[in-house]
Amino acid sequence: MIEKLKTYIEPNKTVCIAETVLFVLALTVSLVSFIIGGVRIGRDPGNMTPLGSVEMTRDFEAEDYDEDCTVCDVAFVNGEDTYIKVYSYEEYEELEIDTITVYGYEAEDGTRLFFEENDPAPDLIRKTYTATITNNNMGLFNLANALLILAVSVLVVLLFGAFFTTYEKSWFLSIMILAVIVSVIFPEESANGVNGIVIMLLYLLDTFLNILCELLISKQSRYNFLVSVLVEITEIVMCLVLMYRFATMVTTLFFWLPIDIVSFINWSRHKDTEEEELTAVRKLTGWQEVLVLCGIAVWTVAVGWLISGLDIQTDFIQSRSLETMIAYIDACASAVGVANGLFIFFRLREQWIAWYICAALEAVINILSGQYVLLVLKLGYFTNTTYGYIRWSRYIKSHAEEKPSLF
Q1: Model's pTM, two decimal places?
Q2: Three-class SS string for 31-45?
């Protein structure tokens, strides 16, 4: 196994050196950033200078919470000063105050802290100071996380350079570099009591794993399912940490994880006769395509009608027509998602068409949710889906006489 892995290492000496330098550089800057941020967080606030009482006004424009949120951060501002108070969603619903009186203190490094108590305990001062410094250095930590993921990406390309084409390596690294840039420009805010730094790390990890998985699928490699399992675990963690999209989490647990396992077994049984690293793939016949489209249409209409008829509070409650449209789009997305999983299991080229549709629907959700770094992932989906469709089509055309079975 070790000898086989050695054959995958980047064979071009110049490219190997360049990738090694990029890996070391990204990893070094990431570690230095983590160390600098850690030192700043670990500093003692020193003697606190009282600033007296301050009346702050609630910032309603910063609030955008619904019943999916378990924790709501309410901001009160006075000039450049901000005080964040955390409420449960139930408390937030009953909240009617517009202003709040707090007491300000200034640390030796100039950091201004605010408390509802006039004489806060040392432990509370330390906790608040650490949280404030962490938020102030969010850009630094996001850069550290992004460069760490980029370093891992370069390492994958370096260790398996012979397995990937020049285009594939360029595409993979381009998407990850773009993700680094976007993560720094558009940092994630804290949500449900989870720091934005943790959220961004999960988004970047999700992007890296999904892009790698997509690339392996396009190469007809059965090992994409091993990476896919890590994708599902990451997305389950995201749902648990952010306390949202529980329907997605249930689908992942009871559909995607099992389908990944059985698909790996099925793909392993259908290796190409000439290249064992490739899996034999095929396409649907005309009547099979019609049946699939009819099934998706029936599912969309039935489930969409059921969801739109339920009395569920949504963000679109003032527009009944928009609410109904969203219900049918959600139903269509779920139908296409299930079809996509089955297409992958049966090694069918039509899974790329399903990816187009899923990526487009997910991109709309990301835009509405302000998850801009995940739009980079969708860009990767669109470009690689085109590449994968072309590769699979060429393989199917060149192996038309073989007609591999579904099972």
Answers
A1: 0.77
A2: HHHHHHHHHHHHCCC
